[in-house]
Design brief:
Layout (H helix, E strand, L loop, with lengths): L2 E9 L2 E4 L6 E2 L5 E3 L3 E4 L4 E6 L4 E4 L4 E8 L8 E14 L10 E5 L2 E6 L2 E6 L5 E6 L8 E5 L4 E4 L4 E5 L10 E2 L2 H8 L5 H5 L14 H4 L3 H6 L20 E3 L6 E3 L6
Parallel strand pairs: 9-10
Antiparallel strand pairs: 1-4, 1-6, 2-3, 2-5, 5-8, 6-7, 7-9, 8-9, 9-12, 10-11, 11-14, 12-13, 13-16, 14-15, 16-17, 18-19
């Protein structure tokens, strides 16, 4: 098998299972091949860069595998398929991919297809599995398509977040989250650079997590301040005893009783 990627940074105990190269610890400069499985331990992380320019930052207690990979420098012939079984990661899709279906990540029963995008993911094999489209330094955020046997959903704006669940479940409407919520959701060893500094070798950077400055998104203003949300999109101040709140992911509205504020 040919080498398709390379470990460019590693910290802690990171193991690799490889049919061609054997099993052992993954070290800086080691090569990665198709069918390799990579796993991080507590307080560990690894950065892997692939031939097409795609990159993975895998945080602690995470596992991923390289299912398929082809890079021939020719249009319509490049493809990459990965699986993240569990853990936290940030992935940047390779630029040469000619269509969104050429680059995909399997997350349990959901397939994520990406084109010119940076994606953060948290997979815990539960209803608390999420993916978020992160902003690029310049230009559009790219596009991400999520599909299961029951539903399809797309996100194409920075900080849009999608909750994914088990087989047969619908995909809920994506929500745009504030920066601090995104950081708290995905932060882990090795992902500080993915959110706050350069990702790998200074190739990409996120300047600031300020979604209100980037997006004209009135939904956020309704979602995360203590004001009414009305179908007419008119926001009005109301007495505290009649205050309505809305769950950030499920979308259900509820009212707090006196003494619960």
């Amino acid at each position: 098998m040919k080498n398709v990627g390379k470990c460019v940074n590693v910290s802690g105990d990171v193991s690799a299972r490889s049919k061609a190269l054997g099993d052992g610890l993954l070290v800086r400069g080691a090569y990665v091949q198709v069918k390799d499985q990579i796993q991080t331990a507590d307080a560990s992380f690894v950065y892997i860069e692939f031939l097409d320019g795609s990159r993975f930052a895998l945080s602690e207690n995470s596992q991923m595998s390289v299912d398929a990979f082809g890079y021939r420098h020719e249009p319509y012939e490049d493809f990459a398929c990965f699986t993240v079984t569990y853990g936290k990661f940030v992935c940047i899709s390779g630029a040469p991919a000619s269509s969104i279906g050429d680059f995909s990540i399997q997350l349990n029963n959901t397939t994520i297809s990406m084109k010119s995008a940076r994606l953060a993911g948290r997979i815990e094999n539960a209803d608390s599995d999420f993916v978020t489209l992160l902003p690029q330094r310049t230009g559009p955020a790219g596009k991400v398509l999520a599909h299961t046997k029951a539903a399809v959903a797309s996100i194409d704006r920075a900080y849009q977040t999608l909750r994914i669940s088990g087989v047969g479940h619908d995909l809920p409407t994506p929500l745009t989250l504030p920066s601090q919520v995104v950081i708290e959701t995905y932060m882990g060893p090795g992902l500080e650079k993915a959110f706050l500094e350069t990702v790998i070798n200074g190739a990409d950077i996120i300047d600031n997590f300020q979604p209100f400055d980037i997006l004209n998104d009135q939904f956020l203003e309704r979602q995360f301040i203590s004001k009414h949300v009305y179908p007419s999109d008119v926001i009005r101040e109301e007495p505290s005893h009649n205050e309505l709140l809305e769950d950030a992911f499920i979308g259900e509205r509820f009212q707090l009783r006196d003494g619960e504020r």
